[in-house]
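As a point of orientation, let us examine one representative protein, giving the amino acid sequence and backbone structure tokens.
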Amino acid sequence: MYELKNDYLTVLISEIGAELQSIKDASGKEYLWQADPKFWPRHSPILFPIVCSVNDDTYRVDGEEYHLPRHGFARDREFELTYQFDNEISFQLLWDDESLKVYPYKFALNVTYLLDGNSLYVEWQVDNIDKKEIHFQIGGHPAFNIPDMKDGDTQTGRIRLDALAPIYRFTSYIDGTHDMTEEVVETTKDGVINFNDETWSKDSIQINNSQTGKAEILDKEGHPVVTVFYETPVCAFWSPYKKNAPFVCIEPWYGVGDHRGFDGEFRDKPLMNHLLPGASFSGQYQIAIGE
């Protein structure tokens, strides 16, 4: 477990999955979900090399079948610490013989956390160290405690987006697939999504086409408790259905799950990222605590 700390926040990160474990303010208040397995046993997994699911956990590269579980394998692998300063830390995951069995590309995935004031910046860098073009998706899945919700309460909460016009989302399904051809309007009032347990009956809310760049979790008084900034093509919101879970996830994604029935090549998946040999990809998002 590694720590970043300043006058505003204390952050803990694990080498397993390079996953955030805790975000506390100076008073010791915890903002990150603490992975109670009764609801969901993770904090903030990194999604790589896929986001959501491929149909039947199966995908194809040059006609050969490979198998990946939902959200890929990076979240369960041990990363190597590459450097640490007072306010910054970086980890790396390299391809190996085991990864080639499920993902036939040679890559380096670097994950960096930078603490600045009341904000934590999360940056991903993917390097193609193969001799051929590689294809991948990547995303974040941080889970935050719902303000004012106590044990046994019925889930209710509000997320405010920076978009007041009609917001469209994919139709998603519990198995992690979706229908990109079917877009529906997400009901908001002044940009606010009011959610409860029933909101998650079809898995998640997936806002597509870069319609938003900021999502705020509000308390009962309407003040932002956690704000996530992103420049990703998709941002999803999720909590486990029928559990009245005391957390909600804000998920910036460079990618999306398979369209239902898709059985084409991996490179042709929707919202796929492509890297030529020697090329790099970088993306980031920001978590701000308080107003």
In short: The mean pLDDT is 94. The chain has one domain: 2-151+236-289. The first strand starts at residue 2 and ends at 5. Residues 97-102 form the longest helix (6 residues).
